[in-house]
Structures are given as structure tokens and as C-alpha cells.
Amino acid sequence: MSKTSGKTGEKVVTLAAKPRQPCPICGRPAVKAHRPFCSARCADADLGNWVSGRYRIPTEEAPEDALESGIMEPDSHED
Fold first, then answer.
1. Are 37 and 49 in contact (CB under 8 A)?
2. Does residue 46 belong to any structural domain of this protein?
3. Mind listing the pLDDT tens digit for each residue in 16-37?
């Protein structure tokens, strides 16, 4: 969207506002101070989810502590 400035005749370009993303924890609109969350409470809840292991990235590897305790044997790739 562009407009013409009344004083100098030059064009002024206005940027469209980005749509606000909802808070990933509760769904309320995000607040700039806690982005992408709506509050410190939701930011702390997300951190707690990471620390407790609720968010995980799936892998094919066994956890290191399971290998060290002897619960699982490491994969041998002998060809």
C-alpha cells in the first residue's frame, strides 16, 4: 500500500502488520515482552515442558545413560 506525502510529493510505503500468532501454551494473543507467549507464566510452563522431557526429538539412538548402565547394547555396524 502506498500513499503520496502532501509536503514533498514522495511516496510513503506502509507495511501491513504481521498477524499475531497465538500463545502456543494457552492460545491467547502473544505479548511483545514474552513473545511468542502471552505471559511469563506460559513461558515458564513451556520451559517446564522442555525440562521434564515432554518435548522430544525422536531419534534412532539409545540414550547414553541406558548404554552406560548396561541396559542396552550399542549397535555394532560390522560389515
1. no
2. yes
3. 666 678 999 999 999 999 999 9
